[in-house]
What does this fold into?
Amino acid sequence: MKPFELDFKNLADHAPVLIWVSNTEWDCMYVNLRWCSFTGQTKEEALGSGWRNALSENDLLTVTNAAKQMQESQQPFEVEFRLRRNDGKYRWMNCHAIPHISASGEFLGYIGTCVENHKEHLLREQTVKQEKRLSKLYEKTPALMQSIDANGTLLSVSDSWLEHFGYSRADVIGRKLTDFLTKESSRDAAVQMELFRSRGHCENIGLQYLTGDGRVREINLNAIAETDFHSQFVRSTAVLEDVTEARKSLRKLQQTRLAFDQSGEAIFWLSLEGKITDANQQACESLGYTIDELMTLSVWDIDPNESRGNWEQAEWQETFAKSKTFRSTHQKKNGLQIPVEVNAKLINVDGESFIIGLVRDLSEDLRHDYEFSHTKRRLEEALRSGNIGLWDWDMQSGVVSYSAEWKTQVGLPTDCTIDGYEEWEKRVHPDDKDQAVLRLQNYLNGKTDGYISIFRFKHEDGSYRWIRAQGRVFYDADERPERMIGVHVDMTDQKLAQIELREKTAELEAIFNASPDLFFRTDRDGLIQDCRVSSEAIFPQPEDGYIGHKIQSLVSSDVAIDYNHAYTNLSNTGQSQTIEYRMRINGDQVWHQAVLVKFHKTSVAIFIRDITDRKSSELDLIKRTRELERSNDDLDRFAYVASHDLKSPLRGIQHLTKWIREDSEGKLPETCNDHLKRLDEQVTRMQSLLDDLLQYSRAGRVRVAVEAIDLQEMFDEIVGLIQPPPMAKIQLHNDGIDLLTGRAPLFHVLLNLIENALKYHNRDDPNIHVRVTETSDLEYVQFEVSDDGPGIPSEHQKQIFEMFQRLDTSVSGTGMGLAVVRRVIEARGGTIELVSQPGQGSQFYFTWPSMRDLPENDFDDDKQR
It folds into this structure.
């Protein structure tokens, strides 16, 4: 045996615990002397598998399974089992084992210790059983009990707790106690928890618990704390008492006393002998006594109609057994007598009989009755005159009563029956409903002090009226909302006027602020009262520097005369006056335009605008117009001369080909005759091209007479001129639209578009539709010319409006038709566009003026050709 092994065994034999060593097969390789002395086994009996004989048969399998499971992972393990002592009794042991690893890292088995924990184990088992019994008793106790841990988590509650608050055990266990408290009580509970930790107990803590159905219960809580061996807080157990009804009763009692003291009527408590035993403040004030003085008096001291003898009769007292109302007279401390109405009744409180009397001063009754009746009539008349509707909402039953005027506001018969909140909600405008309902809810929830709401309300005729709603909630003795009474005021006219005024004011202010104009407000003679000047070059002084001066003093004398004339004309006619004048500023000539308009009753508003650029533009426009007129004249002359001069040789060529054909008839070969025919066709095409060029140069510059156009007549004329194929269908769709415009240009445009639809069609049965519709701009109408032909590819749709563009060269033409059409249309302020898909036909859309030909400023009448 190696020295260190001897040292280990010597140390182990003297250890106070049982020590053992096993191999990988769980055969015992060593036990110390403490093992032998405890079990009564010799070392030889314990080695190998002999150690198993000392274990309880009930625990052997558990120990073996635990050991094998840990051996697979070669991890330390701990297990409890019963070991037979040398006296034959089994004792509970706690065994702890660690892996035995050689120096080379080889797993050799386990080294373990056993320590007796018999008493602790039995105590633990007994504690668990006791806790189970206590838990069962805890849950079944009729008291409201709960336990929470240090974090405030509910560990257990009694069945009566669950039943009382309306929860299941699964709803409660593991959740925070604060989940079942109101927000205010949750804050209080956090504070009380800190005090509870330091004191170890708490008494009569008031908390508000929430039941499963959302009700609030007033609870008094008494709790004690449980601590561990280190005096650390572990849990608390509390007993709860529901004091909701008791507190309600207390509040009612307090409210009753408060009502008694603050009642508007005088209240007296009398003994059966007629002595005053109590009275409220109103009773004292009505007679001018203090409460102490009243309690020294009897009823006949304050009522001259009463006598001591009456109160000494039993029959007299019995008359108060039922409520008794009568009129009498009370005498004040100062001797003044007042008429009163007394309502008296005999009552019994805790076996003692009293008479309670409610006394009302009648001296003001007649006046009050008159004033009430008069006020009621005035109120009803005011409500009718002011278009004010009343509503009364019983918040317990949900019934809402509406006055006749309210019904009239929404167009309902005054005798119709409606009594629901829904009637109000469904009539609120959808855009206002959320806000209107939110304002009502905020008031009902105490978030606002009053209820005022403005919204749109639907009338029976479908229109919406602007309503201002205002109301107040009245509460019952339990401080619950009992009813809400309010008014509806129809403020539609006022609201619409406000909206219109606000919009106009904002619009005028925006226009005024955005305007570059200078502004002066003067009296009728030109004395400046207010101004807004932004040009330092024209008016270098601060704005207040011009106030008190005349506007005429800021301009030259001749312009001042124009101002005086403008003031006179404005005063005589009431119509605005405009003057234009020149000023020299910093050496430059500047044009101004001043517009004078009436402002209120005694003032004149002057707007001054710099029109120098406009004047320059007008002069430049006149110059350019004259140059353009000369250019157009030159162009017309050139086009006419060019057309005439170019056509002359063409006519000569036509004559020559005719003469050649006549002179050589039957002599020339056929190819020569074909050449002459082609030459003739090219000459004809050249003549058409020259005619189109001349027409294009004049398009949009020639004004024609405006006349009433019958579109159907024009359409029929165009179709007759074209002579379409027999199977072609050409239709006009016009919903009675009349035009007052130039006839020839429109005729040319429609003729060209319809002719193109026929010319380029790929079938013998084309369908062509011409539709005329109105546009949002009433000065124009829209024409649509559509066909079901081959269509035009998108890449070619722009070029067809250019000069000399022909997509299909197999069809005769010069390629100028659509170019002329676009120029004619655009010259009249219209537009033309094409919508087409290959194989789906084409649609040409163009707009045309409905009541004129060319714009007024295009050309003068004396320039027509």
